[in-house]
Amino acid sequence: MLLTHLKHADIDFIRWDECIENSVGGLPYPMSWYLNIVSPNWEALVSPDYEYVMPITVNSKFGVKYIVQPAITQQLGIFSRNEITEDIVRLFVSKIPYLSYQINLNENNILAQMQPLPNYTLVLIKAYSEIQQAYSKNCMRNVSKANKLGLSVEVIPDSTEMIRFLVDNTTEKNDNILELFRQIVSLGQMENKTQNIGVRNGEGDLIAAVCFLVTPKRWVYLLAVSNEEGKSKSAMFALVDYVIQKNAESELILDFEGSKIQDIARFYKGFGAENRPYFVVRKFRPYFLTGKI
């Protein structure tokens, strides 16, 4: 297979997005609008006719270009509507045009002997009552608790309200990351690429919210926040249960994103989500580029 390395200005974004939209799994991270936010100068490896594509999220330090996994971007790698064999993955990796890289491949890019990282997903093809039967006891108890407290779950139409609540209640303090939050929520809503769902108390105050990154195949639980009242009232349990109920009996995948933190993973698994791991490839990660030993 012939692969071509394209600089950002040379990428055909229409053909690129067509490939991503039709790719197996429906992951939203490699859509051009999203990459333009998290890695503005991204490049690409593409096969003829954009049948197989791979974003190259390039950065530069001291005049040296290297590849990093962008913030708020769990999985990238190779995408296609066709099967992605291990040989194809190895071919793309061998053609990475820079010496230093760290790339989170996606769940459909399998390479033997690589360490997996967790990601929890739930396919919503069953009836809501069947999905709910798989909830853990703790999850069901928290859903019932929230439902008895007069909370309401609804779409948040105002991106400004969503951004304000997100910034005010996140534990993230890095100004650059917070600016990415703002851009994703704002542009995502304008382009119909995100769905903001919130929980309000009896006075109408927002106490929990999630910005979902959406494609026709998948909703990604991207940016989730609760204030203290939301945490005490188990508002996030009500929110996720609402999303499951509204989308049950579809082929949609609810993607929680993974976590190695036990309590967070338990929250995801409590709804019946199963681990669909992804893998990381790394090469020559010197301290002077990464800042990490």
Description:
The protein is of the alpha+beta class. The protein has 2 domains: 4-117 and 278-290, Aminopeptidase, CATH 3.40.630; 120-275, Gcn5-related N-acetyltransferase (GNAT) (Aminopeptidase), CATH 3.40.630.30. The protein is 34% helix and 24% strand. It has helices spanning 13-21, 32-38, 86-94, 128-133, 137-147, 159-169, 175-190, 228-232, 235-247, 262-269, 287-290; strands at residues 4-6, 43-46, 53-56, 58-61, 64-67, 101-104, 116-117, 120-123, 152-155, 194-200, 206-214, 218-226, 253-255, 274-275, 278-283. The strands form 4 sheets. It has a 7-stranded mixed sheet with strand order 9-10-11-12-13-8-14, with helices on both faces. A 3-stranded antiparallel sheet has the order 1-2-3, covered by helices on one side. The chain has a 3-stranded antiparallel sheet with strand order 6-15-7, with no helix packed on it. A hairpin with a 5-residue loop joins β10 and β11 (206-214). α2 (32-38) runs antiparallel to α7 and α5 (137-147) packs across α9 (235-247).
Summarize the structure.
The protein is 34% helix and 24% strand. The protein is an alpha+beta fold.
What is the topological layout?
Elements (H helix, E strand, L loop, with lengths): L3 E3 L6 H9 L10 H7 L4 E4 L6 E4 L1 E4 L2 E4 L18 H9 L6 E4 L11 E2 L2 E4 L4 H6 L3 H11 L4 E4 L3 H11 L5 H16 L3 E7 L5 E9 L3 E9 L1 H5 L2 H13 L5 E3 L6 H8 L4 E2 L2 E6 L3 H4 L3
Parallel strand pairs: 12-13
Antiparallel strand pairs: 1-2, 2-3, 4-5, 6-15, 7-15, 8-13, 8-14, 9-10, 10-11, 11-12
